[in-house]
Amino acid sequence: MSNISSLPQASRRTVEDFLHRSEFWLRVPGNERDRFWRMDSPGRSYSHTAPEVVKFTEANCLTARAVNNSDLNEFKRKLQTDWEKSRTTPFEGMDLATLLGEYAVWIDHLFFFGLITRPARQDGILDGERPIIEFEFRDGIEDGDGNELEGTFLHRTGQFLVNMLQSSGKFQPFEKALCVIVHELVHVYLHVLAWDNDAGSYLIDIHQDNGHGVQFHELLQFILTQLFKWMPTMTEYEFLFDGGENVMTTETARTTDTTLENCRTKIELLLKLNGPLVQGHPKEHEDVSLTNLVIMLDVPWPTGPIFNSNIHSSESFFHD
């Protein structure tokens, strides 16, 4: 597990709860893994719901609490190097599979407290010491109906499957495959950690749209936005959208106020990724990017509930 010694005591206890939960999940038979467990081991109660897990993760993960951490800086350098290398010589075959395995460990370390892969240094290299899931990189993945998948997490068997091939038969671009890794890791994390005794809440937060509920989108957006900030030159930005649905839904942002800076960040990200989504803008405002925010997301100027839109991507990126 990643080092949590710098966390306040209360936060360390929460991560320890998560750790016990993940170890308990690993011991549970596959056909039992759909239950809303109240316990994470005999005599040890568990009560962290999906919104609580996501909020805690965004505030306490290594990325959030250690801006100048050496591991974080190492990851940024690695991302830069691998991205530049992929532009000249695309990764293929075992090289691509090995690289994606490395990034799964890094993403777990930086965002998920190392609960999924148990990262540890081996000869100076970060490696997954004891994963709770089984990674498989395949040349083609389909669902039960024969639809091609970019990736999927099979919770009953613990298999984490990634499709390395495009429909054309060529290998997936590095940045697109990386987004699949992030997407499926979010599935794993929330499936293992989220508990709720209210089936309605669980449906909205986690299970709806084949596991792409409100809290799934919230956490996915958080991580991918960080990656975008570190590597804004990546071209495959369809990853912010899932299944043709906008990840920035009203439910995702339940807070009623946000700062002007947050508004600016969100919309400039959207504009860069999805192009000019609106035709024109009010002439009385000079800041076109921020104006587009107000138009697209239907918010009061300059603050208010910012996620109230019906923006869709042109095509589905993830299928599971």
How many H/I helical runs?
10
**From the structure provided, what is the oligomeric state, counting identical versus distinct chains?**
single chain
* Proportion of residues in helical segments: 40-55%
Strand order of the largest sheet: 5-7-6
The rough form would be described as globular
Largest sheet: 3 strands, mixed
Low-confidence stretches: 237-264, 270-320
Rg estimate, integer Å: 20 Å
Structural class: mainly alpha
Strand content: 5-15%
Which terms summarize this structure?
320 residues; 10% strand; two-stranded antiparallel sheet; mainly alpha; disordered C terminus
Reconstruct the topology from this structure:
Layout: H1 9-27, E1 39-41, E2 44-45, H2 50-60, H3 62-65, H4 70-88, H5 93-111, E3 119-122, E4 125-128, E5 134-138, E6 151-154, E7 159-163, H6 174-193, H7 199-211, H8 214-230, E8 241-242, E9 245-246, H9 260-274, H10 288-297
Parallel strand pairs: 5-7
Antiparallel strand pairs: 1-2, 3-4, 6-7, 8-9
Helix pairs in contact: 2-8, 5-6, 6-8, 9-10
